[in-house]
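Go through this pair.

…
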Amino acid sequence: MANNSSNGDNQTTTKPPPLPSPLRFSKFFQSNMRILVTGGAGFIGSHLVDKLMENEKNEVIVVDNFFTGSKDNLKKWIGHPRFELIRHDVTEPLLIEVDQIYHLACPASPIFYKYNPVKTIKTNVIGTLNMLGLAKRVGARILLTSTSEVYGDPLIHPQPETYWGNVNPIGVRSCYDEGKRVAETLMFDYHRQHGIEIRIARIFNTYGPRMNIDDGRVVSNFIAQALRGEPLTVQKPGTQTRSFCYVSDMVDGLVRLMEGENTGPINIGNPGEFTMTELAETVKELIKPDVEIKMVENTPDDPRQRKPDITKSKGITRMGAKGQVAGRPSPYGRGFPFETWSSQVVNANCMNNELQSENFSQQLSNVEGALEA
């Protein structure tokens, strides 16, 4: 039975989890593990699908409404006998038989979650309720991808899982921040009241192939602006920090958390930090030295600093092993060179784009190689 980490302190739930499908107890025939991934056509979700499909004993079912996800991210698996893709919105009930649920469905970029904040919080609350109801009915283990945004604009640095956060409940980001906080509450209430096996991952900034280059994420945003000859827009005061984890490392952490015995919440991310001014200067130097760096007004409730405390994660997801991401320790030991990611971003996101040029891939590689140094 899993350990219940309530605010970081391990406890044990007394209610036994619901029984899974009788197929799991068959003595003569072992069926495949049926795994549901909500939001599986998105950036992180599609990489998770790739990882799960590597195991020939897994059958993967992806549910996505394609608000931010894309079928192109899953095209290598469409038609595969162990893969199924369903267009479905998680705010509506889903009747399906599965053994594990990775619940990733929710727009994660501010551009998208601010576009329809009501839909965002409905996805976080009603969508999570529906997935928990499904987990209760079929006896499935469920993992929620929460977010570092639950810490808000933190007063503690770095942020441990025991920190309750500093969040504006009525701000423009609250649909996402508070939506994820409610989702975590629902997860633990179902765990305590119904014995549902839960796992909660608090994801920090992640980058890699299949990112939308124009979705407002800072690395791709700076590079796109530089190549267009536009000023690099750094929100004041420019000393805000972020840490970046490569997507394959993130996916490894999610799978290990699901297969482990700790309910979480667990921080998953890279503890290395960059200031936004430092990042902008690097992009400027390597791509277009004469480009202007322009300070603009900050968006409301933008966190001043963001860095995960991965002390707990080291023993659960093997974070903190050797390997490098952006010149800092890679969470899960393999790391990934920025140069390779750069070329993949170009191929995936910039075909037929106005930014496409003969040296575009090389310029991206130069920027990311410098960050790695």
Notes: Residues 117-138 form the longest helix (22 residues). The chain has two domains: 3-13+25-204+243-268, 218-242+271-308+335-372. DSSP finds ten helices and 17 strands in the chain. Confidence is low (pLDDT under 50) at residues 320-365.
